[in-house]
Specification:
Layout (H helix, E strand, L loop, with lengths): L1 E5 L3 H12 L3 E6 L14 H5 L1 E4 L2 E5 L3 H9 L3 E5 L4 H6 L3 E4 L16 E5 L11 E3 L10 E2 L22 E3 L4 E4 L7 E2 L4 E5 L2 E4 L4 E6 L5 E2 L4 E6 L12 H17 L2 H4 L2
Length: about 270
C-alpha cells in the first residue's frame, strides 16, 4: 500500500511515521522552500538537506518516480518538491492525505485517489474528501469524521501551559531571518530569538524554543517564524508531538475503515 501525503511539516511527518511503523509505504510532497517551524521533527528538511531523520526513520529528497520507488525499496521516506499534484497523479497511490494544514483546501479532491483524507478545517467529508481528521487540540483530536467538517479555524493556537498566541514567535518586519537561536534553547520572556532587518524578534514567554524557521529565509511582518513551549525542559522537542501522533492514529483508522485489510498489508 502506498499513501501520498501532501505536506511534510511536523504534523504530516507524525502521520507518516505512524503509517510507516504500521508497514505502509509513504511519499511526501512540499514546497521548494519549506516553511515548517518545527524543522527538527519534519521530513520537509530532506528537501533542504537532501536527507534527514526523525525518530530513527530516514527521509530523502527524490526527483523522479524512479527515485521515489528506490527510496521506498530501501525503507526510506521519499520527499518531492511539488506545489501542485504532478507527482500525486503520476505515482497513483492507494490513498492521498492532505496535511498541508492551510486551513483551506488547496486543490485536493475525491478523484485524486481511491481514498482521500483531509486534515483539519477546510475539508468536508463526502464533498472534497472521504474523511476528515480533527486537528484541534481537545477531546476530539484525531477523530475520524465521515460526514461534515472539522472544527473551524479560530486563528488562536491551542493552549499549552496556559498560553496560546503568546507561544508564537512572529517576524517583526519584512526581510531575511537572521541570528536565530537553535531549537532546544531555553529562553526567558523578552529574550531576542532572532533578527529581521535589524529588528529583534522577542519571545513573550519563558520556555524552550520548540521551532524556528531556518536562517536566511524570507519572511513578512507577522509571519510565524518560531514557537516557544512554556513547559521548558519537560518538552520532548526531539520527538513527534502528542498531537501529531493522535492525528496519525486517525489517518490509520480511516485507512483501515475504507480500504481492504489485504491491501493495507501489501
Amino acid at each position: 500500500m502506498l499513501v501520498f501525503i501532501r505536506g511534510a511539516g511536523d504534523l504530516a511527518t507524525g502521520i507518516s511515521i505512524r503509517l510507516y511503523r504500521a508497514g505502509i509505504s509513504v511519499c511526501h510532497s512540499d514546497l521548494a522552500i519549506p516553511t515548517a517551524v518545527r524543522r527538527n521533527v519534519a521530513f520537509s528538511e530532506a528537501i533542504r538537506l537532501g536527507e534527514c531523520s526523525v525518530e530513527g526513520i530516514t527521509a530523502v529528497r527524490a526527483e523522479s518516480l524512479e527515485e521515489i520507488h528506490e527510496a521506498i525499496s530501501q525503507k526510506k521516506v521519499p520527499v518531492v518538491v511539488d506545489e501542485g499534484k504532478s507527482f500525486l497523479h503520476s505515482l497513483q497511490g492507494d490513498a492521498v492525505v492532505d496535511a498541508i494544514l492551510a486551513k483551506k483546501n488547496l486543490g485536493t479532491c475525491m478523484e485524486d485517489a481511491r481514498l482521500v483524507i483531509g486534515i483539519g478545517p477546510g475539508f468536508t467529508a463526502g464533498v472534497d474528501c472521504h474523511a476528515v481528521i480533527e486537528s484541534k487540540r481537545g477531546h476530539d483530536l484525531g477523530r475520524v469524521i465521515l460526514k461534515g467538517s472539522a472544527i473551524p479555524n479560530t486563528g488562536i493556537p491551542g493552549i499549552i501551559g496556559g498560553y496560546g498566541k503568546e507561544r508564537v514567535l512572529r517576524a517583526p518586519a519584512e526581510g531575511i531571518l537572521e541570528q536565530t537561536l537553535p531549537i532546544g534553547t531555553l529562553v526567558e520572556a523578552g529574550d531576542i530569538c532572532g533578527v529581521v532587518n535589524g529588528i529583534p524578534m522577542r519571545t513573550e514567554i519563558s520556555g524552550i524554543i520548540r521551532g524556528m524557521l531556518q536562517e536566511g529565509i524570507s519572511v513578512f511582518p507577522g509571519m510565524k517564524a518560531g514557537d516557544v513551549d512554556p513547559r521548558g525542559e519537560a518538552v520532548e522537542y526531539r520527538n513527534v508531538s502528542d498531537k501529531a501522533r493522535a492525528i496519525g492514529g486517525g489517518v490509520l483508522e480511516a485507512l483501515l475503515h475504507f480500504l481492504p485489510w489485504e491491501l493495507c498489508k501489501e
